[in-house]
Amino acid sequence: MDMKLFLLKKEGEEIPVKQQIKVIANLSPFTDAVLKFDEYTSLKALFTELSKALRENDFIVIAIAEGIYNKTKIKLMSALSLETEQNAEVLKKLEEAEMSPDAVQQNAAMPKNAKVFLSKDGVYSGFAVKKGKQNIAVVVLDKAHTDSVIKQGLVPYLTGGSEAPVTNTEKPEAEEKAEQPKETAITETEKGVAIRTLNILKENDIHIAVNGNQNSNVLKEYGDDLEGFYDYFTFTPHIEDRGDYNVTDYTAQMARSAKGLSKADLGACISDIFTSDESDYICISVATDKSALVRKLYKEENETDDQFIAGAAEELFALISEKTAGNNAVGIEIAQDEAPNGEKKKMQKSTKILLAVVCVLLAAAVAVGALFFVKYRQAKREAMTTTLPETTTEAPETTTEPPVVIEQMKLSDLIRYELVNGIQRPEEPTTSAPESTTAGAIVAPDETTTEAAAPQEDTAPAAITVNGTEMDAREAIARIVEVEMGNTFHKEAIKAQAVVAYTYIKYRNAGWSIDNVQLAEAYSQEVYDAVNEVYGQYLRFGDAVAFTPFHLLSAGKTASSEIIFGTPYDYLRTVEISSDKKRDNYRSEITVTADELKTAIAAYDNTITLEEDPAQWLNIITHDAAVSTGTGYVQNMKVGSKEMSGVAFAFDVMKGKGIASPCFSISYDAESSSYKFSVFGSGYGVGMSQLGADRLAIGGRKYDKILDTFYPGTILEQSKVAEATTAETTTA
Question: What is this structure's pTM?
Answer without folding.
Answer: 0.46
